[in-house]
Amino acid sequence: MVWLLVVKWILSLLLWSQYLGTDNLTLYKTRCGLTFSFPHAISMNRIFFGVSFTPTENHKIGYAGVFGNFRLLVEEGRWEEAKAAQDDIHEKGMRVNANIWQLVIQHCIANKGLDSARGIWKLVQDSKFQGNAFVGTHLIRMFNMLGSVEDANDVFAKLTRPNVYTWNAVIAANARHGQGDLALKLYYRMLDIHGEPDDFVFVSALQACRAIGSLPEAKVVHHHITRTEYETELMVTTALLETYSTVGSLDDVRREFETSPKRDSITWSAAIAAYSQRGDPVEALRLYQQMVQANVKPNNIAFMGALKACASVGALDQGKIIHGHIKKCRLDTEPLIESNLIDMYAHCRSLIDAVEVYQKSLKREMVVWNSMIAGYAMCGNLHDAVKVFEENINKVSEMNADTYIGLQRACTKQVALEQGRSFQKTSDYWDQFDKPEVGAAIMEMYSKCGGEPGEISAVFDKLPKDKVRSWDALIRAHANQGDMQEALRVFEQMQADGVKPDAATFASVLNVCSMMSDVTHGRHIHEQVKSAGFESDSIVAKALIDMYSKFRNFTDARAVLEKLSSKQLALDAMMAGLAEYGHPADALQFYEELKVSGDELTNIVYVSALKSCSRMSSLEEGRKIHEDAKGRNVVNDPYVSSALIDMYSKCGSLDDAFKVFNSGKCSLATYNAMLRAYVQYGHFEETLKLFQNMQHDGLNPNEASVLAVLNALTTSGDLGDCKRLHAYVIERDLEASAALGRAFITRYANLAGIEEAQVHYETLPLRDVTTWNTWLAILADKDYRAALKGLEEMVKEVKPVPGTFSNLLNSCRDKDLVGESLEVLKLMNDVHNLKPNAEHYALFADTVERAGRLNDAEGLLKDLPVPANFDNWAAFLSDFKSHLSANSCFGHECASDFKWVSDVYANDELRMDAFKYYVLPKAVEAWKNPGSVVVESEPEMTLMRGTELTEKIEKHKVLFKDGRRVVRRSPTSDKAKEEALCGHCERLAISFGILNTGPGTTIRVSKNLRVCADCHTVTKLMSKIEKRDIIIRDSYRIHHFNKSGECSCNDFY
């Protein structure tokens, strides 16, 4: 047995000797410790192979030397010498073998030399080797890679014995270069000659179908696939999905489906895949349900299309039903099905189910664990995403693009910049870095995690510039960084370089125009969309409707909608736009129109309708929509349920909100909605208890959950609980949330002061433009110069936006800094190239008025409309109270503004108007939020309301009576003066604090309403008399009264 193995090994060595030559064989013998001589090997060659071979002088350099010299000449492009060398090889009775041709072809492809490729093809023809299918296949692929399909077809035409690989190569070449018709002719000719194709041929044929945009041809190829073993192959299934998602328009898909004489599984699956891939998931799910009802057994394409549709709309219950159908068809172990199941569960925020599918996977192929990485990334779980990567990296020879996309998205979610940089180096090592989709994920990571602009540019420089996705990624990266002007410049440069935008690019640029509030540029892009023929694309149409809705131009938004044949996505966008930016009554009218039209009412429509009811405080309309949702069986959708809870709580029916919460299956969305409802009604203990219950139910709180609890703690004014919640956020790996970071530094500034806030601000993982704006607002609340210094630090990291300067102008207004306010406007315009808008001019005018120079601002104020928002209306009255007449106040009868209107008219000339606006609302019992305050003490928080007077506080009223001279609100008697001074809850709370704390102790009070002028004046007196610091946080700002009786707001409140 041992001798037999030795003989086999020697024979293989002798075969290699023909290629290696004498010198290389000698080296090989030396390394292996062989003792036989080369002539002996030649004699053995004669014995075993019957080859008569006598070494000559020319062969002393060996075969490797002869062929190596020829190969070198070809690779250097020395064609005449190469031809001579080839002739010399032929004269010696030898021939350049297939391996040498393969090596020179690979070198030619790597160097992208078409002229060299044609030179090689000429040499092959001279050697009469073109009949070899192996060499011919490599030649065709070479010309395909180098962009010359004509040469590829010439090679194929001269082959005498093409095999299945050669057919695949020429079909792929024609399909890739737009010769779809010829590619399909070759495909059908191959079927006649060779019979069954392999999986590569099917993929090439489908590529040809995409090239000519023929849905019927794609379905024919799909029929061929179903008759083979390749139906569930990953590569073939992926090609089918891509084909159905791109071939023809949705109108073509609908027409093909409706006119099909026989609706078999291919017909159904093609339509389902097309709708799900092209942004109409509702129609895809409707077709899937009809397919099941028609007793047509779904195939893998239908299942994957339906799962993608569920993922798009968050239909978890429907997804679980489809999962059951998949198990029944015994397709649940197919890798692509497992991948789509994981993706569906992750998008529906059911990570437990996604992990269960992953753990039950038997094959654990790359596509499966890539989906698991993406699922963890979606949920912001970087640690587990990296763990899956490390578990599987040694099982494959190389990673694919999806692996690195998932990892980069996980880094983006967690703002893990350094980890993202590390993965970029890994993707570069695996030769994935120059792929547009990988580059897009890396650029997104850098743009959202605080990477340098140069890093984004470096990534883009390595991407193929002829790919539209590369440019689209760069546009979105600049938009993520808040640099909208640069995003538009890149869009223009892209077109100047001859790259045509696609639907995704137009959608991105339209979103940029929306964020810039640039209606002129938006219309210009719309005209380009029309010229390019993308106005009927559902994704572009949605972006157009979103843009026009934000501009409050619903006429143009409707015009876009009316031109569409497939309207579902656009209808959702229109409804959402009306609810968010239009009048809520118009949104409800549009909802009624949808009901009558028979269009599908999605969860987005119901959520938007309920939001409109909330804005109108229309409980009756909300109840009607609730009944409609029950009738259409969407009431258990988590997003609809959460919208119902929000609607009932905002319309004053907390009991109904709680009934909705208890009636269905609890989800993260419904828990968050109930948390917000409790916070709104001041039920802080219930909020904390519910927060604990959601964790007991196995739900991991997200940033929305934490923000609700943080609002509750801030209202209660407990700094200790705020810090404990912050520790919880860090423990649960949620600190990467920029929204949470901004919320916490704001709360620390409110509860503990700016020094405490700065400590936490400096540790934030991401300081984007919004975070910087928040920090500047905190600084500006303290001092204008501190905010200006903060701006200097900001420009070193991010580019300011118009909202940045609003914070500085607010600070100037509070400090009567007219000159500095003008300086800010000039800074915007001259240094940062940002045009001040109406808000900035209004703030400047406000500053001028506060400084007693209103006449200088009259030119700016005369054209300003009265603010429609009631909070702004109250501030407007407060700031300009000495310059308004009674008539300007009619039509704004909001209960929360009555006391401010009274302040405006509390002077001798307008005493009756003050009586009208202060006493009359009491007479009609206008609704208003009860004033409540919280006094922070150790070890507990004491909640007080104005009606809950203790005997101690009654006795302490004497402290206030000496201040009666400051009363301004419609005083008619001494008793009225005393009640006006002593009845407000913040004064009672301060009194309570003084009575229950030691001398010199700082008193911290939190109030749910704005502090009135009387209370502000009295608190100044109390802080001076008691020699205490008193800090009041109302619904508008922080008031820090020092022991000298001065307030941090400089009496501008």
From TrEMBL:
Gene3D superfamilies named in the record: Tetratricopeptide repeat domain
GO biological process: RNA modification
PPR repeat locations: 163-197, 264-298, 365-395, 467-501, 667-701
InterPro entries: DYW_dom, PPR_At4g14850-like_plant, PPR_rpt, TPR-like_helical_dom_sf
Signal sequence residues: 1-21
Keyword Lipid metabolism: no
Top-level taxon of origin: Eukaryota
Keywords: Repeat, Signal
Ranges where the DYW domain occurs: 972-1053
MF terms (GO), sorted A to Z: RNA binding; zinc ion binding
Protein name as it appears in the record: DYW domain-containing protein
Source organism: Ceratopteris richardii (Triangle waterfern)
Lineage, top ranks: Eukaryota, Viridiplantae, Streptophyta, Embryophyta, Tracheophyta
